[in-house]
Design brief:
With about 375 residues, the protein is of the alpha/beta class. It has ten helices and 18 strands.
Length: about 375
């Protein structure tokens, strides 16, 4: 019979408090679950939302939802994985039988979504504890740890030659950005694109637009150093967002020769969404990749929606299927067409998890990665 193990993890005792690296008890995987020895975890702005308390989640909790590692143990009923498999983790496991899954929208699974921020696994219970007290999971993964028990459906097998730090980022930022370009928008060769916000997701959208063959790729951010990174990644023009949304939009229209077909916004900021919308040309679309605050509202000139056929598109997880899109993205990485290594600005050990979070919060880091093995 499988026994519990221990794992070092970055524990968030309560929202707004520092992370504490402690040793937790980790129960064996249940039916349809596996235990993964994590080698890398990305630090995402969505982790910051949980850590800072802008998204309510049960605490204490182990954050993290971008992970990759090696399967150590499998639970009852697991058929598609074996001990020793290298896997990238998806925070969006899907049931395959609900209305959304049957509509080929597994990233909107009606079974998994209601449970995602409840702090447990798909059965509602937890596998983590500290001194006998329950510790909650984050997005089924809790990847700020050396080991994690996760749903089998959260695991996508990857080639052994893919670096774990790259595979971890594919678990959220890369798929969210690249997928928004390829799947949500369906950018075609010679179409024009703008990307507002150049963190991990925004930079991934830049890389995805290059592969899609966009003719103009305008990068927009408040930080000039991020704009330089975007240029190196393939952006054809850059705009500093340091004033009113209308000014930023006017600069994008000028840089793109009349407006873009798709403007991707990565942070969920109402002012940036407005600027992105105004930067589009006739029949253009703003693609909202970022998740706004629950009380946020967006002001748009409504008359231009019917008269110019402008559109607003939502994009969660890049409208992607992880089991299809992770392998495609990583294949392009291995062939040198998606230089995902450009996204990583900071590599830190688990003991510096708080410093990694601070680097992402300040904008200093494009993407910070915790090295766990």
């Amino acid at each position: 019979m499988a026994e519990a193990v221990t794992t070092r993890a970055a524990l968030l005792p309560a929202a707004g408090t520092p992370l504490r690296v402690v040793e937790l008890d980790l129960a064996p995987p249940g039916p349809g679950e596996v235990r993964v020895r994590l080698h890398a975890s990305g630090v995402c702005s969505d982790d910051l939302n949980a850590i800072d308390g802008s998204v309510e989640i049960p605490c204490p909790v182990v954050p993290g939802h971008e992970g990759a590692g090696v399967v150590e143990e499998i639970g009852v009923g697991v058929r598609g994985l074996a001990v020793g498999d290298h896997v990238a983790l998806s925070w969006a496991p899907y049931c395959g039988s609900c209305e959304q899954c049957l509509r080929d929208l597994p990233h909107l699974c009606g079974t998994a979504w209601p449970l995602m921020l409840a702090g447990g696994m798909l059965d509602g219970t937890t596998r983590l504890s500290f001194g006998g007290a329950v510790v909650h999971h984050y997005c089924f993964l809790s990847s700020f740890a050396e080991r994690a028990v996760v749903p089998e459906r959260s695991c996508v097998r990857i080639p052994a030659e893919v670096p774990f730090e790259i595979a971890a980022l594919v678990g959220c930022a890369v798929t969210s950005g690249v997928g928004a370009v390829w799947r949500t928008a369906g950018v075609r060769p010679d179409e024009r694109v703008a990307v507002f916000g150049l963190g991990g997701t925004g930079m991934s959208a830049i890389l995805g637009a290059v592969v899609a063959g966009a003719s103009d790729i305008v990068a927009v951010d408040v930080l000039p150093e991020r704009l330089e990174h975007a240029r190196a990644a393939g952006a054809t023009a850059t705009v500093v967002f340091d004033g009113a949304p209308e000014d930023a939009a006017e600069a994008v229209v000028a840089a793109s020769g009349g407006g873009v077909d798709y403007a991707f916004e990565s942070r969920g900021r109402p002012a940036a969404v407005r600027a992105a919308f105004l930067s589009t040309r006739a029949r253009g679309a703003v693609v909202m990749m970022g998740v706004p605050r629950g009380d946020a509202e967006i002001s748009l000139p409504a008359i231009t929606i019917p008269r110019m056929e402008r559109r607003v598109l939502g994009s969660i997880y890049g409208s992607s299927r992880p089991d299809r899109d992770f392998p495609e993205i990583l294949n392009l990485y291995l062939r040198g067409r998606l230089p995902l290594e450009r996204l990583i600005s900071h590599r830190m050990p688990l003991d510096q998890a708080d410093d990694a979070v601070a680097a992402v919060r300040s904008g200093e880091a494009t993407r910070a990665v915790l090295k766990l093995a």
